[in-house]
Structures are given as structure tokens and as C-alpha cells.
Recover the amino acids of this structure.
């Protein structure tokens, strides 16, 4: 029976898929060095939280598949996996609605000054109601930086409450955006300057690291909100903290951070104009079950020698291992 290592226990729906099909070892760590003893003879790996590099893959000579219950693969050396003939299984679409809804919730929380008002009301400051920081969203502009599955779903939700949607995404066509009733903008800077809410929906790559920095924040309206449910590294966090402290933008809603988990005493704890959540946008009951199931099914399929379609490196199937 094949052996599959899992960094942290999956939702029970995913564990049920694996039950009786493979020998499962749960490491409760995603550190490659700490996982290595369990990985040396493993056939598969599912990374819920953690990473894997080329060195670890080479040491795990039996490794045939890497699974991610989600779509982010920035912590996996995908290039190395492809070179070694190892498919990197992902779970596209399973958490799309959950993440889009979470982004929408952060938009409402930031625009209505919910967190600050909650804190101050609990402290007996009923006068916070007269700060007039809250604003209406209907008629305002949502600027999407990235318009994949999650971006499109957020656009639908925003349009439903009367927001205008402007999209910047070099990987989609203007026609496809305009067909949905939105505005396509070929320059990200124009989206930043016109939007009342800017929401990021891009993967973390060398090109998108610190995509939003000091320069980009200065382009935003002082009344604008920044939302990030994508990847923490896409925002220069020091620049964002300074912008929030100076009131250069209205507020931010963040579900992801450059360093996770966020530690006590972080700068976010001192700011009243930011709403933070612990990278949980895709962790609704429904989404957790969906991504865990899809990742587990994909890992089993690859171990059975099937070319599973939901992989981050489809070119891997050209590797000699698969041609055999």
C-alpha cells in the first residue's frame, strides 16, 4: 500500500477519501527538514500548511505526487517537481465562493468601520457613531487586481449591491470583462487611482511580490479601502502600515500576511483602521471539505498512474516517467 504524508490533518471529508486506500502519516509540521524522516519512503505528500523544496524532493526518492488543498503553490518548488516528474495536485474552484464571500465581508467591515466601532462601543464610547467613517458601497467602484475565478465571483457579489467594477488583469481579454458588464483597464495604476475599494486576486510570483507598495498606495484615494485575500507577499506590509497610520487610505481588510502565523504584538494590533483574519477565507465548512476531497482524490489518481487534470504543472506529463 502506498504511503502518503500529510502535514496537518485534512477536513474529515478528505481523510475519508484516503481511508483504507493508503497508509497515512500526519507530521503536524510543514517544515521540510522536520518532515524528511517521514518523507524518505513516502509515495505522496499533501501540504495543508508548509512547504517543500527541491532538496527535500530529491531526498524523498519514492515521491510521486504532491497535493495542495487549495490553489496556492508558492510554497512548492513547482519547477523542481516538474523536472522530477512529480505532479502538483491542486483544488481549483472548490473554495472560490468562500473566498469571494470573505473578501466581500472584509469590504463591508472596512467600509462600515465595524471593528473599530465594536471595540469602542464595548469600551463605553457610544460617541464613535459620530465619527462618520462609515460609507455606502452602492455606486462606489470596486477595482479588481486579478480576475480569475475568485475575482469574477467577487465582481458578481459587488455588482449585486450596486458597485461599479473595474478590472486589471493582463491574462484576461477586455472583451471577456466587458461582456460581463464590467470595465477593463489595461493599466493597474488607473484602477488604483479610480477605485474606492481595491481587492487583490493574484498568485504570489516574482512579478507580483510587493505588487502593492509605497508608490501604489500613494495612487489610491485617501478614502479608499485595500482588501487582500490572495497572498501576503503581494503587499509591502511596512508601506501599508505607514499608509494606514498616516491615514493615507481609509482602511484595509487582510486575510493573508507575509509571515504566518501573525504573532502577538504585530503592527496590525495597534491599528483601528484595519480588519485582520487568520488566513481563513477558504476555510468555511463547505470549502474545507471541497478542497480536501479534491486534493485527496487527485493524489490517489496520480498514485494509480492516472493523469489527473487539476495540477499546477500540466507539462509534467511530458516527463519520461509519464511517457513510460
Amino acid at each position: 500500500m502506498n504511503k502518503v504524508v500529510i502535514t496537518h490533518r485534512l477536513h474529515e471529508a478528505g481523510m475519508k477519501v484516503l481511508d483504507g486506500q493508503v497508509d497515512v502519516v500526519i507530521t503536524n509540521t510543514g517544515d521540510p527538514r522536520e518532515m524528511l524522516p517521514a518523507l524518505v519512503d513516502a509515495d505522496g505528500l499533501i501540504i495543508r500548511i508548509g512547504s517543500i523544496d527541491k532538496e527535500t524532493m530529491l531526498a524523498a526518492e519514492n515521491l510521486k505526487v504532491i497535493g495542495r488543498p487549495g490553489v496556492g503553490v508558492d510554497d512548492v518548488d513547482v519547477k523542481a517537481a516538474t523536472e522530477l516528474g512529480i505532479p502538483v495536485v491542486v483544488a481549483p474552484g472548490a473554495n472560490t465562493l468562500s473566498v469571494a464571500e470573505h473578501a466581500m465581508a472584509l469590504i463591508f467591515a472596512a467600509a462600515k468601520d465595524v471593528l473599530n466601532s465594536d471595540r469602542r462601543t464595548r469600551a463605553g464610547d457610544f460617541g464613535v457613531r459620530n465619527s462618520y467613517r462609515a460609507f455606502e458601497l452602492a455606486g462606489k467602484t470596486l477595482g479588481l487586481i486579478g480576475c480569475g475565478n475568485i475575482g469574477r465571483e467577487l465582481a458578481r457579489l459587488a455588482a449585486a449591491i450596486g458597485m461599479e467594477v473595474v478590472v486589471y488583469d493582463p491574462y484576461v481579454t477586455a472583451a471577456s470583462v466587458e461582456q460581463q458588464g464590467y470595465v477593463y483597464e489595461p493599466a493597474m495604476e488607473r484602477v488604483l487611482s479610480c477605485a474606492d475599494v481595491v481587492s487583490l486576486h493574484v498568485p504570489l510570483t516574482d512579478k507580483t511580490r510587493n505588487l502593492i507598495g509605497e508608490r501604489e498606495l500613494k495612487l489610491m484615494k485617501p478614502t479608499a479601502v485595500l482588501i487582500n485575500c490572495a497572498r501576503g507577499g503581494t503587499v509591502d506590509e511596512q508601506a501599508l502600515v505607514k499608509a494606514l497610520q498616516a491615514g493615507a487610505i481609509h482602511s484595509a481588510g487582510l486575510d493573508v500576511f507575509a509571515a504566518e502565523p501573525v504573532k502577538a504584538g504585530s503592527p496590525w494590533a495597534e491599528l483601528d483602521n484595519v480588519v485582520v483574519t487568520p488566513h481563513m477565507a477558504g476555510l468555511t465548512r463547505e470549502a474545507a471539505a471541497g478542497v480536501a476531497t479534491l486534493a485527496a482524490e487527485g493524489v490517489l489518481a496520480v498514485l494509480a498512474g492516472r493523469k489527473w487534470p487539476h495540477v499546477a504543472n500540466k507539462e509534467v506529463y511530458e516527463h519520461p516517467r509519464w511517457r513510460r
Observations:
- The chain has two domains: 3-94+285-323, 96-276.
- The first strand starts at residue 3 and ends at 6.
- The mean pLDDT is 96.
- The two ends are 22 Å apart (CA to CA).
